[in-house]
Structure formats: structure tokens, C-alpha cells
């Protein structure tokens, strides 16, 4: 297909899907989907975890072929056989899961397919750096060197590198599959500014997000999928969040009640002068977590919240400080020590740390608590199977059966498996969660909140890191806000409000700006 003489009229259909169907073993992922994406619009795809959003995107991107139905690009049949074919017509995709090469530099990752070369074929390092730096600036990463290896980046930064890579060549359609799931609101704003620029240049944007506020703030139209079916397409100006949710889950969502108030019990975990690896704060942090309590850690990405959890979990060596469990000082040198002490961590990067992707859901769910399913040292397959079936039910995980490899699950359902893994058996006395509902749909979020509330009522001590302020306000009894490795303030439930939390999150940046020359 050539790119010559494309129709450019805004509002005309650019990409059309007609009766697209895709069957996976045991799952009808897409069922006769009709959709059209118009020139120059920003079009949201919404729907619960496993509704089929990423499958549509993979079909558009030439990764999967549909079983039946057809696609039109600019009025002509579009049948991509490989991702290359999609790139050739100008489709750029930022996938839900990272596709970066961790050992390579940011610059090499961004320009991977188009490394600038000297005449003799050697990579032109200087141009590589320049071109990469320009693209990095477009996504707000100008503070990093293009030479930095990707493996040193945080999740949000990796996401921005993926986006910079998608921008490295000119395209007509940019598809973003949950680009903001890993970003803080401030980082997301940087991204939306960039998207606005692309839109003004006439680019068509397809945008997947579980954040309905983003859809209403930025998209022209929204299409809802449910169980692989196209339910409705609306102008965002003509609909509202409650209506969308009803289309997504097929019922009304219960009111957003705070998780029931609790009476925290005795002290579970106390840290004093804890200095995680790379901490910007020589004093370290200190706080106390009680049984039956949900304590939140808020703040911007990079504030040091993840590092605190990792330090307590023994995942990184600490630079100083003490940890007390039940009032007794303990040494946690490895995650194994932590788990032995009943301390669990649900990490923010499910792909790297949470799951064994090629293995069955059954195995992943029971991984952390093998003694629960083992009798006399022998693993009981049946017990394991039953446990994963129960967990899948209580978390509404969409899977064809306990033997399905996790790699085949939708992104949000993978996240639920990670959660199931730590909740399984309910033996975690201290449960730490890092961005627990990233990529999880509205209905399942409510279920997870309820589950955490129930665990706390049963006496579990819960420490949760989240960049979503409404999530912290709904879940927590108390919120501690970190800013540059410093606990800038603590709010009790009566004092919760978004502005107060945000201004604490920025507080160390303010004082820094005022005192720096
Ligand atoms: N390669 C595969 N093999 C088997 N089943 C698959 C495969 N890819 C996707 N599925 C299934 O197809 C369904 C739709 O998945 P998809 O990834 O499109 O959902 P999604 O709407 O993107 O969800 P999420 O919001 O969680 O990302 C799910 O039930 C998923 O398990
Ligand atoms: Mg998806």
C-alpha cells in the first residue's frame, strides 16, 4: 500500500473495522466488531479488563490476523501481515507492555530501527545522541542523558521512552494502549500536551485508558467494548462517566464509599531513620504501621516511595536505619527473610517482578505460599487448582481456566493475578502494595478496595503506595506524603483533600527552588 495521495479531510473515516472477529483457545476476544476512526480525531477505547481493547490494537498493528471481518485504511482494504506493514501505512503503536531492551541506552532504544549511521555504516553516536535528545525533550525526559541504560529507569520513564520511540518516525495514526497507567498526573499532563501538538498536526490518535476523566478531558469520541463486543460509540460531549461505566460493566456501579473506618490495633511495623538505596534524605524516614490499618504513601514519582517498600522487603540493601516487627528489631536481608516474617510486597512492575509469565495462572497464584498447598512437602496440584479457581472468582479474573499461561491474559488481569498471589492463603501479616490498581478497570478496582478493607478488618497491616490521590483517600486511614525522600506531612482521614496532598508532595521542591541560587 502506498502512502501517496491520502485523503486528509478531517472527520472522514481513516481506518475502519468491519465485523472483526478473533478467537483464542477458550476465549472469543473479539466478536464482530465494527468501528471507525476518523481523520484527526482522538478516539478512546474503553472497557473492562479483558474486553478486547489490546486485541484490537494488535490486529491494527499487524501482530494478530483477525479470523474474519475486514479492515479499510483510507477506503482501501488493509490487511497487514506483519508489524512492518502497519508502520508502512503510518500506524505507530505504544503497546501496553514494555518492549524495550533493558541493556541498551535510551537513545538506542528510541532509534532502534533507524540508527543514524556514518557513510561507512558505523553508528553515528553524535547524531544518535542529538536526535534521541530531541525526542526525549518532546516527552519531558530532557533531564536524562540519551546514554543512560534503560534498565536504570523507573517504570514511568520507560513508558515515556516507548512514546518517544513511537514519535521517532512520522506517522498518521498514533495508538496508545494505557500510556498513562504508569504515569503520575503531572507526567500524564506532559504526555497530553505532546498529544495535543500531534493532533494539531492532523494526527489521528487512538487512546486506551481506564481513567475516564482523561477520556472526557482529551478525546473527541469514545467506543466501549464489553466481552469482545462493540457496545457503543459516542461523542464525549454527549455522554458522561456514569453512562460509560454502565456500558462497560453492564450494570450500575455501587457508590464510591470509603473503605470502612477501622480501629487500628497494636504496632506491626516501625521503621526509624530508614535510608533506602539512593535516598536523597540523610535523616532517613520513620513511621509506624499498625495491625488493622491501611496506611498510604503518597507523593510524586521519584519521591522515594517504591524505594521504601523495597528496602523493607529486603529487595535492595539499605544505607541505614532500623526496622522493628512487633516491637522487635529485625534484619531483613532478602525478600525470603521478609516473606518468612509475613511481609509481602506487590511490586509496581508486574512483568519484571511479579509473575512467571509462561506458567499457568494456577502456579503463579500459589507461588508465594507453596506451603499452603503442599502437604508433607508434596505439592498438591488439586489444592493449587482449587485455590486459583477461588481467587480468580473473588477477584473476577478473566481466564479460560487455571491452566492458562499468564502471558495470554489481558494486562489488567495479569495485575489481578499478582494480587491474587499475595492474597492467596491470607497469611500476609504485613502487606505492602505498590500502585495496586494500575491498569485495573473501574469495576475490579472497587472489588480490590473491598478486599483490602476486608483484609485490614481481619487484622492485616497494609501499606500502600499510589499516585492516584482519590485511591489513597478512599482506601487509607492515614496518608503520609513523601517529597524528595522526606515525609512532608501526615494526614488523618478527616483532613484528606487533594490539594493538601499535592502541596505536600511538592513541598520539598518549593523549598529547594527558594533556597537554590
Ligand atoms: N495470545 C492470547 N492467547 C489467548 N488468549 C488471549 C491472548 N491474547 C488475549 N487473550 C484473551 O483475549 C481477551 C481480551 O484480551 P485483551 O488483552 O484484548 O483485553 P483488554 O481489553 O486489553 O484488557 P486490559 O484492560 O486488561 O488490558 C482476554 O480474555 C485475554 O485473556
Ligand atoms: Mg489491554
UniProtKB/TrEMBL annotation:
> Could you tell me which PANTHER family the record lists for this protein?
CARBOHYDRATE TRANSPORT ATP-BINDING PROTEIN MG119-RELATED (PTHR43790), D-ALLOSE IMPORT ATP-BINDING PROTEIN ALSA-RELATED (PTHR43790:SF3)
- Provide the alphabetized UniProt keywords: ATP-binding, Cell membrane, Membrane, Nucleotide-binding, Repeat, Sugar transport, Translocase, Transport
Subcellular location per the Swiss-Prot or TrEMBL entry? Cell membrane
The reply to whether Transport figures as a keyword in the UniProt entry is yes
Q: Name one GO cellular component term.
A: plasma membrane
UniProt superkingdom:
Bacteria
Upper lineage:
Bacteria, Pseudomonadati, Pseudomonadota, Alphaproteobacteria, Acetobacterales
Species for this entry: Kozakia baliensis
- Give a Pfam family name: ABC_tran
Please name the GO terms that the record assigns under molecular function. Answer: ATP binding; ATP hydrolysis activity
Q: How does it sit in the membrane?
A: Peripheral membrane protein
What name does UniProt use for this protein? D-ribose transporter ATP-binding protein
Q: Tell me where in this chain the ABC transporter domain is found.
A: 15-252, 269-509
Amino acid at each position: 500500500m502506498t502512502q501517496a495521495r491520502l485523503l486528509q479531510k478531517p472527520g472522514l473515516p481513516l481506518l475502519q473495522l468491519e465485523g472483526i472477529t478473533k478467537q483464542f483457545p477458550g476465549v472469543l476476544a473479539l466478536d464482530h466488531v465494527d468501528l471507525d476512526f476518523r481523520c484527526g480525531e482522538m478516539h478512546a477505547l474503553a472497557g473492562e479488563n479483558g474486553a478486547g481493547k489490546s486485541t484490537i490494537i494488535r490486529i491494527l498493528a499487524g501482530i494478530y490476523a483477525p479470523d474474519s471481518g475486514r479492515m479499510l485504511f483510507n477506503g482501501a482494504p488493509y490487511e497487514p501481515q506483519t508489524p512492518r506493514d502497519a508502520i508502512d501505512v503510518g500506524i505507530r503503536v505504544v503497546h501496553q507492555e514494555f518492549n524495550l531492551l533493558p541493556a541498551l541506552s535510551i537513545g538506542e532504544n528510541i532509534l532502534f530501527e533507524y540508527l543514524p549511521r556514518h557513510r561507512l555504516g558505523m553508528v553515528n553516536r553524535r547524531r544518535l545522541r542529538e536526535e534521541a535528545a530531541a525526542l526525549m525533550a518532546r516527552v519531558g525526559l530532557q533531564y536524562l542523558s540519551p546514554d543512560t541504560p534503560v534498565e536504570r529507569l523507573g517504570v514511568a520513564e520507560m513508558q515515556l521512552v516507548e512514546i518517544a520511540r513511537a514519535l521517532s518516525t512520522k506517522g498518521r495514526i498514533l495508538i496508545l494502549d494505557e500510556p498513562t497507567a504508569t504515569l503520575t498526573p503531572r507526567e500524564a499532563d506532559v504526555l497530553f500536551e505532546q498529544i495535543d501538538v500531534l493532533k494539531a498536526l492532523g494526527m489521528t490518535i487512538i487512546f486506551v485508558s481506564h481513567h475516564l476523566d482523561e477520556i472526557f478531558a482529551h478525546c473527541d469520541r469514545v467506543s466501549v467494548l464489553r466481552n469482545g463486543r462493540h457496545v457503543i460509540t459516542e461523542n464525549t460531549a454527549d455522554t458522561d462517566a456514569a453512562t460509560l461505566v454502565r456500558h462497560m460493566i453492564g450494570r450500575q456501579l455501587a457508590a464510591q464509599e470509603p473503605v470502612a473506618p477501622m480501629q487500628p490495633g497494636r504496632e506491626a511495623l516501625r521503621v526509624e531513620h530508614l535510608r533506602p538505596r539512593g535516598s536523597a534524605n540523610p535523616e532517613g524516614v520513620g513511621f509506624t504501621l499498625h495491625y488493622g490499618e491501611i496506611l498510604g504513601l503518597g507523593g510524586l514519582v521519584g519521591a522515594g516511595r517504591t524505594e521504601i517498600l523495597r528496602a523493607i522487603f529486603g529487595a535492595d540493601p539499605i544505607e541505614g536505619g532500623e526496622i522493628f516487627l512487633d516491637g522487635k528489631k529485625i534484619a531483613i536481608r532478602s525478600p525470603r527473610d521478609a516473606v518468612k516474617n509475613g511481609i509481602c510486597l506487590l511490586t509496581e512492575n508486574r512483568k519484571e517482578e511479579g509473575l512467571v509469565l509462561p506458567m499457568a495462572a494456577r502456579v503463579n497464584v500459589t507461588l508465594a505460599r507453596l506451603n499452603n498447598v503442599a502437604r508433607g512437602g508434596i505439592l498438591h496440584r488439586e489444592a493449587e487448582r482449587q485455590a486459583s479457581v477461588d481467587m480468580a472468582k473473588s477477584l473476577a479474573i478473566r481466564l479460560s481456566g487455571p491452566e492458562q499461561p499468564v502471558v495470554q491474559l489481558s494486562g489488567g488481569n495479569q495485575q489481578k493475578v499478582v494480587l491474587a498471589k499475595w492474597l492467596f492463603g491470607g497469611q500476609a501479616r504485613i502487606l505492602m502494595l505498590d500502585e495496586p490498581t494500575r491498569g485495573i478497570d473501574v469495576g475490579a478496582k472497587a472489588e480490590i478496595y473491598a478486599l483490602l478493607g476486608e483484609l485490614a478488618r481481619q487484622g492485616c497491616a497494609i501499606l500502600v503506595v499510589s499516585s492516584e490521590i482519590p485511591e489513597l483517600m478512599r482506601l487509607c486511614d492515614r496518608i503520609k506524603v513523601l517529597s524528595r525522600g522526606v515525609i512532608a506531612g501526615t494526614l488523618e482521614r478527616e483532613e484528606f483533600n487533594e490539594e493538601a496532598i499535592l502541596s505536600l508532595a511538592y513541598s520539598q521542591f518549593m523549598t529547594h527552588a527558594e533556597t537554590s541560587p
